[in-house]
Specification:
With 167 residues, this protein is α/β, with parallel strands linked by helices. It is 38% helix and 14% strand. The protein has helices at 3-14, 53-65, 76-82, 101-110, 130-137, 151-164, and strands spanning 45-49, 69-73, 89-93, 121-125, 143-146. Strand 3, helix 4 and strand 4 (121-125) form a beta-alpha-beta unit. The longest helix is centred in the C-terminal third of the chain and has 14 residues, at 151-164. The radius of gyration is 16 Å and the shape is globular.
Length: 167
């Protein structure tokens, strides 16, 4: 089975997951060690870029429940320093104090030497409507969520963007 068919098959299986079980492994998500094919001993590394301390705390607490290592920064400048290391997902607040979101995403995606150039970028905003969401998705990001993100949102991110992205 080709990787594309496998991904399509898995996407269809998890499209409407309403319970806490991984659709392929049939284990509760809390029991999964979310390591990637790049090393079974390493934790899933996530970079969270948000200038709100409360949002950062929610993100860290939720993702640590699933065994993730979360690095937090509060500005685009700090994030660029962190992006010299590889991450599996980048969680990005829409309103950064020192850079517009379109410029920042373009910096990540256009730099061919960047180890995170193809990493999924998840945007989060406390205020969204469908028009805004569509505009953000045109920026070459993978998904947009409304803050505060719920546990089910983190599960979806981890299942879809970690397990499927690294197949």
């Amino acid at each position: 089975m080709s990787i594309l068919k496998l991904r399509t098959n898995l996407v269809e299986r998890i499209k409407d997951f309403g319970n806490s079980f991984h659709p392929v492994l049939k284990k509760p998500l809390e029991e999964l060690s979310l390591s990637t094919k790049h090393g079974t001993d390493s934790l899933t590394r996530i970079l969270s870029i948000d200038d709100d301390r409360i949002c950062q705390k929610i993100i860290v607490n939720q993702l640590q429940k699933f065994g993730c290592q979360v690095d937090c920064v509060n500005s685009a400048r700090s994030a660029l320093e962190k992006l010299t290391s590889a991450y599996q997902v980048i969680l990005l607040d829409v309103h950064l104090p020192d850079c517009s979101i379109d410029v920042f995403v373009n910096l990540i995606r256009s730099n061919e030497g960047n180890v995170n150039q193809k990493v999924p970028i998840i945007l989060a905003s406390s205020w969204l409507n469908e028009s805004c969401k569509k505009n953000y998705l045109t920026l070459d990001v993978d998904e947009v969520y409304v803050k505060p993100m719920q546990e089910k949102d983190f599960k979806k991110i981890l299942i879809f963007f970690i397990f499927l992205f690294w197949l």
